[in-house]
């Protein structure tokens, strides 16, 4: 089977009766879930022995979607997630993506481009910040984020250095430098073939 297939595509490609037998394992909600419809590079490592997960690859390979889904999953467990993006004009599009995932309350930070999205039912929140280390280096300190996602950042190491010790895991999509270390994992996003 082709390696650039979702689990659902792999099951659908099986011959009968194996396809029907495998399909029967899943409810309708599970069959349409992100876990079955994501490409392998869009899912975080299966083991929990990582602190840093980075995803690199070409344009339109689902890197930002992987980060949104990862952060939204943490939010569904009432976690406090920090999001930093290199492009301040991308904040509103990220807000839209998160709003599709959860019922959220939109709250802009006074005097900045940052935004907080809070669960209307629950305790979780996502703070989205533009990343400018020279002027906003302290935007991540003091928030007690459990998870941090950085999109399109130059050096993820700067984000790691500027965060509190409460962060359990980091996800970086399209970093200019790949974070290293024994607890770092890396996925390379391939381009799907058009058939």
SSE topology sketch:
Elements: H1 7-12, H2 18-23, H3 28-31, H4 34-37, E1 52-57, H5 63-76, E2 80-85, H6 91-101, E3 104-108, E4 115-119, E5 125-130, H7 133-136, E6 147-151, H8 156-161, E7 169-173, E8 184-189
Parallel strand pairs: 1-7, 1-8, 2-5, 2-6, 6-7
Antiparallel strand pairs: 3-4, 4-5
Helix pairs in contact: 5-6
Short overview:
The chain has helices at 7-12, 18-23, 28-31, 34-37, 63-76, 91-101, 133-136, 156-161, and strands at residues 52-57, 80-85, 104-108, 115-119, 125-130, 147-151, 169-173, 184-189. It is an alpha/beta fold. It folds into two domains: 1-37, no CATH class; 41-189, Rossmann fold.
Describe this entry's structure for a reader.
The chain has 2 domains: about 1-35, no CATH class; about 40-190, 3-Layer(aba) Sandwich (Rossmann fold), CATH 3.40.50.300. Helix content is about 30%, strand content about 25%. The protein is built from 8 helices and 8 strands; from the N terminus they run ααααβαβαβββαβαββ. Helix 8 links the parallel strand 6 (about 145-150) and strand 7 (about 170-175). The protein is globular, with a radius of gyration of 18 Å. The mean pLDDT is about 85.
Q: Please give the domain count.
A: 2
Elements, N to C (H/E):
HHHHEHEHEEEHEHEE
Separate helix tally: 8
Low-confidence stretches at least 5 residues in length (pLDDT < 50)? none
CATH topology of the largest domain: Rossmann fold
Key features?
globular; alpha/beta; eight-stranded mixed beta sheet; Rossmann fold; single chain; 195 residues; 2 domains
């Amino acid at each position: 089977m082709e390696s650039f297939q979702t689990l659902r595509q792999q099951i659908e490609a099986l011959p009968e009766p194996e396809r029907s037998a495998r399909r029967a394992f899943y409810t309708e909600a599970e069959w349409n879930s992100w876990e079955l419809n994501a490409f392998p590079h869009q899912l975080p490592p299966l083991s929990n022995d990582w602190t840093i997960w980075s995803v690199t690859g070409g344009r339109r390979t689902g890197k930002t979607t992987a980060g949104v889904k990862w952060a939204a999953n943490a939010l569904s467990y009432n976690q406090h997630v920090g999001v930093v993006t290199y492009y301040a004009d991308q904040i509103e599009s990220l807000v839209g993506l998160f709003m599709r995932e959860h019922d959220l309350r939109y709250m802009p930070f006074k005097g900045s481009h940052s935004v907080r999205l809070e669960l209307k039912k629950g305790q979780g929140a996502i703070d989205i910040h533009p990343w400018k280390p020279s002027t906003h280096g302290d935007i991540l300190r003091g928030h007690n984020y459990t998870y941090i996602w950085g999109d399109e950042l130059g050096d993820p190491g700067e984000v790691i250095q500027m965060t509190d010790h409460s962060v359990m895991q980091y996800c970086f999509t399209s970093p200019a430098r790949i974070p290293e270390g024994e607890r770092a994992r890396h996925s390379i996003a391939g381009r799907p073939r058009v058939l």
